Amino acid sequence: MSKLGVFDISVRYGKVPAVNDLTLHVDEGERVFISGPNGAGKSSLLRAISGAVATHHGRIEMDGDLLTGRPPEAIARLGLSMVPEGREIFGSLTVEENLRVGTGLRRDAEAVDADIAEIYDSFPILGDRRGAVAGALSGGQQQMLAIGRALMTNPKLIMVDEPSLGLAPKIVDQVYDTLCALQAERGLTLLIVEQSSLRAARVGGRMVLMRGGRVVGEGNAADMADRDALAQAYFGTPQTPPRDRMEAVT
């Protein structure tokens, strides 16, 4: 069953196209990675789905509800939450205050404390530092906090933009391990922009490759991480690039 449907959407910044006539679907409970070179339109796609930027044309649906044209807060009420690139936490607020920011749209206030306890159970370091100002956290801890805040809206679908950006490999492993565990426990659907196709292949799921604002390939993440498929997405050619160039983009 389809959870998210994106149909022939385009996004422009002034006259500059970022997403071009793109169609995509994500099934209920699926884990989908969006990968591709810088400037491919990956983040713009997520921002359009969340309502942060307007589409030039096309439509976006979740569970049959039309998202196109709705403000971000209305989309969030339908069960979609986004962890943006750069995390965008409130550095002057404490860890717990940041988590409670994500509960403003909820009507089950009595369950909020239980959900915060569950976040602390998933990310013990956040529980240890619940009274610390978020700006004092490490990059990895801030990423955990951003994911925890997204979970506090009680979402059905979570979009995460570059969860591994700037983090040490061990921290990335921890972040992904927790994301996958939470997906299984809560029945979440995940849509993740991940620059490292090799990371996506290790985590597992479906991969969608973007280039020039369009989908240029999709399939099992492990299969799509082969060098020819990536060369097509990154360099517009089926020929395998030199190893040093391939390592640079993955």
Describe this protein's structure:
The strands form two sheets. Strands 6-7-8-3-9-10 form a six-stranded mixed β-sheet, sandwiched between helices. Mean pLDDT is about 90; it is low at about 240-250. The radius of gyration is 18 Å and the shape is globular. The two termini are about 30 Å apart. Helix 6 (about 140-150) runs parallel beside helix 7 (about 170-185). The longest helix has 18 residues, at about 170-185. With about 250 residues, the chain is α/β, with parallel strands linked by helices. It has helices at about 40-50, 70-75, 95-100, 110-120, 125-130, 140-150, 170-185, 195-205, 220-225, 225-235, 245-250, and strands spanning about 1-15, 15-25, 30-35, 55-60, 65, 80-85, 155-160, 190-195, 205-210, 215-220.
Rg, nearest Å:
18 Å
Number of helices: 11
Name the overall outline.
Answer: globular
End-to-end C-alpha gap: 31 Å
E-strand count: 10
H/E series:
EEEHEEHEHHHHEHEHEEHHH
> Average pLDDT value?
88
Class based on secondary structure composition and strand pairing? alpha/beta
Strand order of the largest sheet: 6-7-8-3-9-10
Largest sheet, described in full? 6 strands, mixed
Name the helicity range. Answer: 25-40%
Low-pLDDT runs of 5+ residues are 239-250
Beta-strand content bin: 25-35%
Secondary-structure topology with pairs:
Blueprint: E1 2-13, E2 16-27, E3 31-35, H1 42-50, E4 57-62, E5 65-66, H2 72-77, E6 80-83, H3 95-101, H4 112-122, H5 124-128, H6 139-151, E7 157-161, H7 169-186, E8 189-193, H8 197-203, E9 206-211, E10 214-220, H9 221-224, H10 227-235, H11 243-249
Parallel strand pairs: 3-8, 3-9, 6-7, 7-8
Antiparallel strand pairs: 1-2, 1-4, 4-5, 9-10
Helix pairs in contact: 3-6, 6-7
